Amino acid sequence: MGLLGLNFVMGTKILMLFMMVNTVHSIGANWGTQATHPLPPSTVVKLLKDNGIQKVKLFDAESNFLNALRGSGIEVMVGIPNDMLYTLANSPAAAERWVERNVSLHVLSNSVDIRYVAVGNEPFLSTFNGTYLSTTFPALQNIQEALIKAGIGNRVKVTIPLNADVYQSSTEQPSTGDFRPDMRDLMVEIISFMSLHAAPFTVNIYPFISLYNDANFPFDYAFFDGYSSPINDNGNIYTNVFDANYDTLVWALQKNGFGNLSIIVGEIGWPTDGDQNANMRLAQRFNQGFMSHISGNRGTPMRPGPVDAYLFSLIDEDAKSIQPGNFERHWGIFYFDGTPKYNLRLGGNLGGLIPASNVRHLPRRWCVLSPSANLQDPQVIPSVNYACSRADCTSLGYGTSCQNLNAQQNISYAFNSYYQEKNQLDSACRFPNLSVIMKNDPSVGECRFKIMIQTSNSRNGGFLSEPVNILLQVIMLWFTFL
Ligand SMILES: *[C@@H]1O[C@H](CO)[C@@H](O)[C@H](O)[C@H]1NC(C)=O
Ligand SMILES: *[C@@H]1O[C@H](CO)[C@@H](O)[C@H](O)[C@H]1NC(C)=O
Ligand SMILES: *[C@@H]1O[C@H](CO)[C@@H](O)[C@H](O)[C@H]1NC(C)=O
Ligand SMILES: *[C@@H]1O[C@H](CO)[C@@H](O)[C@H](O)[C@H]1NC(C)=O
Ligand SMILES: *[C@@H]1O[C@H](CO)[C@@H](O)[C@H](O)[C@H]1NC(C)=O
To answer: How much is the pTM?
Structure first.
């Protein structure tokens, strides 16, 4: 009897521990690589493991990433870039080769735990003008067939990461949700297919963008810590737009006969720079709020239970297009070099994020405006334009981390961005009579003047023609200026 009691207690404890570990392990992260100085894949995999991130979503299927993930135990979603959809839609053989090369090989011989293939990335986004409307579903079908043929159809599932704009609601109540009329027929075909193959629906949900696009969007409704005018949807109470958005999708699925389709939140997060609402404080509030919100496995009013989600993003990417906005390069919970930005508890690590290890920076050197330079020098404007068009100046401007810089500091920031991006080549700090290299960190308050990290390109120099190039460009710009 005593033994039985003990066993029961131990069993409960083990069960509780298991549930805790399970909760801790439920968060994923997006690992994008549109960066001029990416961390080595092995460093990123260690970063994921050190921080208890058990799932990773990639935007392609580069073998060096997959090799680094070998034996890591991390679940992987590989991706097919939109520009491959046409080929994969039109050629089952190409789909078979893609699966063979980019999935089977790694799953079967390399012990990479690939669980999903993301076919395209937000292919129905309106900015693509319908380019991928007719190819995405056929590509999905061909990849599914190829997975079955390769004998891994039960283990690896297909999905399409979609922007939440494929569905909508006529009021703020999720129960009025449905697919957008122009998308409905295609979406119903896709979800029928997904249901047939037990594939999940993947949606990217961005309360930050709601706020960015609409000055009247209720600020607190973007977050998870209470909202003064909750939305009552026939008894379901919504205090945050994430739940409401997610449940709008649940209603859309349900109305079209697939209320049980599983849902993955492919991207969710908050940027830290490049906009008045993009900063550490709000990113911390959102991401920590989201973690607490999903940690109890309460789910949403329409879908109680665990929420399967991938944070966007793991690391900043300084080469992303800023067409959506300057915030686009600042989604990381880590800076480009793997330094944590703010205190974030991802479940297990109560002490907050753990930085990347063994990261090698370039020497502590910055390129700045020479103290003797004249601000009225006609070369200043073209030089700054030159630097900022080739490097990242998205931390300058209204509402950013560097908004309080004076004119000299502004110019220095631009010069340094270019100099660092060019791996601190001497020739990249020769803005005519304007720039000088210094060894004291010119960072001001929250505004960080970066030092880049070493990459395989940065070790062996190169860029011999750079000085001539700068001078030429500056002169040319100056002529257009006249
Ligand atoms: C595998 O994926 C990579 C990266 O997306 C791609 O460049 C390559 O073409 C793919 N291989 C095949 C055989 O399709
Ligand atoms: C979509 O159309 C707009 C306006 O016609 C054009 O500027 C843009 O380049 C197009 N985008 C793509 C991806 O084709
Ligand atoms: C949906 O799931 C519920 C609970 O698991 C089940 O009772 C129901 O039959 C399912 N409905 C469909 C359409 O599969
Ligand atoms: C610094 O640069 C930003 C962005 O180019 C600009 O908006 C701001 O006015 C500049 N500040 C000063 C003091 O020149
Ligand atoms: C740099 O300054 C010197 C002295 O003021 C001047 O002679 C020279 O033309 C300047 N060079 C450039 C590229 O502006």
So the answer is: 0.89
Q: Is the pLDDT of residue 142 over 80?
A: yes
**In CATH, what number does 366-481 get?**
1.20.58
Residue 235 half-sphere exposure, CB side, CA atoms within 13 Å?
1
Tokens standing for residue 337: 């070099």
The reply to whether 122 belongs to the active site is yes
Q: How far is 186 from 180, CA to CA, in rounded Å?
A: 10
Residue nearest to atom 9 of ligand 1 (CA): 98
For residue 401, CA distances in Å to 52, 55, 284, 315, 415 come to 29, 31, 15, 18, 17
Note the pLDDT tens digit of each residue in 174-219. 999 999 999 999 999 999 999 999 999 999 999 999 999 999 999 9
d(CA 7, CA 322): 58
3-class state of residue 379 by DSSP: coil
pLDDT tens-digit readout, 220-250: 999 999 999 999 999 999 999 999 999 999 9
- Contact status, residue 368 vs residue 447, Cβ threshold 8 Å: no
The DSSP symbol for 472 reads H
Q: Which of 75, 100, 145, 267 is catalytic?
A: 267
pLDDT the model gives residue 296: 86
Q: Give the ligand with the smallest distance to the CA of 131.
A: 2
Pocket test residue of 370, 377, 430, 433 for ligand 5, highest count of atoms within 8 A of CB: 433
- Listed as own residue / partner, the contacts of 476-481 with beta carbons closer than 8 Å and 24 or more positions apart are 477/382, 477/385, 477/386, 478/378, 478/379, 478/382, 481/378, 481/381, 481/382
Q: Given this model, what pLDDT does residue 476 score?
A: 44
Domain span(s) for CATH 3.20.20.80 in the chain = 24-329
Show the tokens assigned to 474: 């500056």
Can you identify the CATH homologous superfamily of domain 24-329? Glycosidases (3.20.20.80)
Euclidean distance between CA atoms 266 and 261, whole angstroms:
15
